[in-house]
Amino acid sequence: MTTNLPAALRRPRYLISWWPWRALAYAGTTVPVAAVLTSGLLVVVAPAVAVVNAARQGRPVELPVVVFLTLAGLALLAAAPLVSAPVAAFERWRLGLVDARPLPPARRLIAGDLLAGLAARYTSAAAWREVAYAGWLGAVVPVAYWTFLVLVLLDLTLVASPWLVTGSDDMILVWTTVGTPREAVPYAIGAALFVPVLCYLAGLLAAGQATVARWLLSGPPADPSALREVTRSRARLVDAYEAERRRIERDVHDGAQPRLTSLSVQLGLARLDVPDDSPAAGPLAMAHEQAKELMVTLRRIAQGIRPQQLTELGLAGAARQLAGETAIPVTVHADLPRPLPEPVETTAYYVLSEALNNVALHADATRADVRLTQTDQRLVVEVEDDGRGGADPVRGTGLTGLADRVAAADGRLLLSSPDGGPTLVRVELPCPS
């Protein structure tokens, strides 16, 4: 289900959905707010422009005018954080018309914290982002809306031109002149065909405004759609980690596995010496089967420390094998021109394995893409799905474990997962040539 206007604009059925009407409602409710803010800005901006033009032309500027503009500018700057608070609150509510994804709530002033709240309006970055949005809404948005309105009026004029041309006087249509209704018909048809384009332009205008509103009113720290680094402590020593991994692999392969193989052989030989009708035959056979199963399990554990398919197929082949074992369709794009160092390759493999497992279990996705890109200095692993989004390392979806593993390799893990999707997991691992 589409939850925001930018995503709806990419769908082929946009014009026959409710989204154009929601964009129109968003634009319509923008007009009174922008008009009030523009009027307030004009009180200072219009005289300031006049003074600047007079100074450029060499005309004298009266001192009272300069004093008035200075005081008015200071008053506007002092009032801006207070005025922007209700504007931002209204915009957060109004944004739901074109974007259902939640925004972080604004800080509320309470009776016992009134002075601290007022001080925060002048010192916090969030408050000044709200001021920036109010200024953008009062200065930039009206220009865009007036430009679009001119296009609409021009298109309506062209559509109505066959009825406006009287035949006695010529009528100017944009770049040409027509004298009869017949001459105006082609322009009317072209303008009618341009109406769907205007609908898309209106949607793009509303979507752009909503995107700026979300960016400024949420801010970089709280914006889930921006790539953010999932960091964990990097105090774990990489050398100790790698040494311990190799020790475990060596102990399993050279110590426990041969002894378990010998035990299985001895139990098999004992079964040959015990008659089938003996009371010990049943337990002995069960012990023999359990020993063989344990040997298979131990072999898998030993191979899992350095996956066998990674050794045989390389990272690209192992990634395609993991994709084939995933419950949803997964497309793999690999651009790996050179062999990778073993630690980097192993880390990337486990990143892919865990990320695809998260997609299958938690994302409610229908497809996923895996991209492997190698440059001169690093390996980039990206896993993107079209699921519901909302992945959060705090909720224990395996991302913190991945971040630990990536940090141990001196890399970093980044996450983009807004509510409604898509989710992108990006891992960057140092891989010098």
Looking at how many chains there are and whether they match, the oligomeric state comes to single chain
Query: Strand count, sense and closure of the main sheet?
Result: 6 strands, mixed
Our measurement of the CA-to-CA distance between the termini, rounded to an integer number of angstroms, reads 44 Å
Structure summary, number of beta strands:
8
Q: Give the helix tally.
A: 13
Runs with pLDDT <50, length 5+? 221-226, 231-237
Overall 3D form: elongated
SSE topology string: HHHHHHEEHHEHHHEHEEHEE
Q: Could you tell me the mean pLDDT?
A: 79
**What integer value in Å does the Rg equal?**
34 Å
What can you see in these coordinates?
Pfam families: HATPase_c (PF02518), HisKA_3 (PF07730), Sensor (PF13796). Keywords: ATP-binding, Kinase, Membrane, Nucleotide-binding, Phosphoprotein, Transferase, Transmembrane, Transmembrane helix, Two-component regulatory system. 63% of the residues lie in helices and 10% in strands. With 433 residues, it is an alpha+beta fold. It folds into three domains: 1-221, no CATH class; 238-305; 308-430, Histidine kinase-like ATPase, C-terminal domain (Heat Shock Protein 90, 2-Layer Sandwich), CATH 3.30.565. The radius of gyration is 34 Å and the shape is elongated.
